[in-house]
User: Fold this.
Amino acid sequence: MVNRLAGKVALITGAAGGIGLETTVLFLREGASVLMLDISEPALERAVAKVHELVPDLKSPQFVKTKKCDVSKESDVAAAMESLDEHGGLDIMFNNAGIMHAEDDDAISTSERIWDLTQAINVKGVWFGCKHGVLSMRRHKKAKGSIINTASMVALMGAATPQLAYTASKGAVLAFTRELAMVHARENIRFNSLCPGPLNTPLLQDWLGDDLQKRHRREVHFPMGRFGEAIEQANAVLFLASDESSFVTGQDFVVDGGMTKAYVTGE
Ligand code: NAD
Assistant:
């Protein structure tokens, strides 16, 4: 532990999933307290049990807490944020929750229901996190803050394997994060987007399943010949959350094994 986040209070959405859980563990090891939010209570219970196993030695006032929250509901997000008031308010917000629905497809086949659901979680949910994050930082007169929003590599590149609602949602996150960075720069609240490449987490792996053709369609484009790991995203999030990135704001922070720079790869 090198305490890069000593004394900081962080909120992580989608904290029971791949990137969220790894980031929770890393933040705690670096001295932050973490409120883990997720829509799934059973998943949160399993996740926090794992967290206690991996980081058994938290010393008061450091804490890890969980709360059920649907990020697409503003009242849920506001209530979660207000629960941090007794701990001095928010320093770091990681808007990480997101879905890629199995029925998300091209312009013809994607239903309006799937489109709206995807935008509600992936776009509106991130907006609510930003809004209530800024309000908490203002309420507690924070001298600085860091907000990290998860976009995706697909916000930067086109793909012939369509998931139109998801792609549109991540493009929106990328665009509004840039603007938020400018609007709040003089308050010393930094905003950056994380753009992961394809990962070895349930979100993508459950979707790919054992469909080898679907898998190969993607793997052939990996310069490093492999999917990314959640911890590799968590390490980038830690950098963006900590004061080590104090002059970094408004960036599309790409962690993709070089995929967005590839014309052809080694295979
Ligand atoms: P994951 O599916 O492992 O975790 C996502 C978590 O979000 C789950 O625990 C889920 O229960 C939770 N969640 C879903 N809807 C929610 C809601 N309405 N409110 C609160 N929580 C909700 O996924 P992951 O791979 O860890 O992805 C995290 C983020 O990274 C997502 O925004 C995803 O779009 C993005 N991303 C992932 C990949 C990838 O290949 N896995 C690539 C690029 C971007």
Remarks:
- Helices lie at 18-29, 41-54, 74-82, 112-139, 164-183, 202-208, 212-219, 230-241.
- The mean pLDDT is 96.
- Strands lie at 9-13, 33-38, 64-68, 92-95, 145-150, 189-196, 252-255.
- DSSP finds eight helices and seven strands in the chain.
